[in-house]
Specification:
This protein is mainly α and 122 residues long. It contains 5 helices and no strands. Pfam families: MerR_2 (PF13591). This is Chaperone modulatory protein CbpM.
Length: 122
């Protein structure tokens, strides 16, 4: 965690730019920690914003789009990680059936008596 002075030095941005980026919603420092409101994630994001603006000449609208897409990608990766964790807890035949359905292939799983089809997937 970084205080604002340390953050500005590490991100190599000025206070006016930082304030504008926070107002634009590009950065969201932790309000609950007034002495160290900035995280490593905030620092990486600020560096990305600076690189997009200064190094690549991306305008504000483009930066907003890039950040939104990155946020969506991060959300999808998190969701896939949760799905993978849930799959790992299932019996092997059920895992195989789900993977086969995801691949669009034919499902050829040998079932034991009393086991039904995968519920909720069609």
């Amino acid at each position: 965690m970084f205080d604002i002075h340390d953050f500005l030095l590490r991100a190599r941005v000025d206070a006016v730019s930082l304030d504008a980026w926070i107002k634009a919603g590009w950065l969201a420092p932790q309000q609950a920690a007034p002495e160290h409101p900035f995280s490593e994630l905030d620092l990486a994001r600020a560096r990305l914003i600076r690189d997009l603006r200064e190094g690549m000449g991306v305008n504000d609208e483009g930066i907003a789009i890039v950040l939104d897409l990155l946020d969506q990608l991060h959300g999808f990766r998190h969701a896939l990680h949760r799905v993978n964790s849930a799959l790992q807890g299932l019996p092997a035949p059920l895992q195989q059936e789900i993977l086969a359905r995801l691949r669009g292939g034919q499902v050829e799983v040998v079932r034991h008596p009393g086991e039904g089809p995968l519920s909720g997937v069609d």
